[in-house]
Amino acid sequence: MTIHNLGVNNSILNQFILELRDVAIQKDAMRFRKNIERIGEVLGYELSKTLNHEDKIVKTPLGTKKVSVPESELVLCSILRAGLPLHQGLLNYFDKAENAFISAYREHKSGSDNFEIVVKYLASPSLQDKTLILADPMLATGKTLENTFKAMKTHGKPKQIHIVSVIGSEAGVDYVKKVFPEHTHLWIAAIDKELNAKSYIVPGLGDAGDLSFGVKL
User: Could you tell me how far CA 216 lies from the centroid of its own chain?
Assistant: First the structure.
């Protein structure tokens, strides 16, 4: 796996990450969602540089011009519900992409911190020989991405896979390196060192789904 950790470089991306983490600023749900959307745009722009490109001729009012544009057939898949703002940011740039959505959540047993990832819903076009972009804002243990990818295999084999995340843990990144194909790319804005006993990223930012859309029961 090739890891692109954009947060190690100085850029406006780090301002968006700072605001997502700030306990005072993140109380504004609309701003929280917008910052994730903007991070999706930044990561999507960098990702676009690695896609296959082709030359096209465009006619202007005064002549013609050759322009190199991405030629890849893209399928953009987000994990509900936390992935929706990130999905929108990517879709702002990849507006011709097909879209897929999958439901995956942690199911805890008997009040324990132990959990299983349950996938209950998938709507996706064919993935055969296309470029798959998996969007999940929080890469904690990596098991959600693993189970998501397993479920999507019934829709064909993509020729290339990109994972897009906002914040990940070192353990989660290491895990997806083991379970995804070797040539997968991970695009991420920040990597934190720790997971706590409940497998939340530390310092992280909290629950991205709750902060975006309200606390769930």
Answer: 21
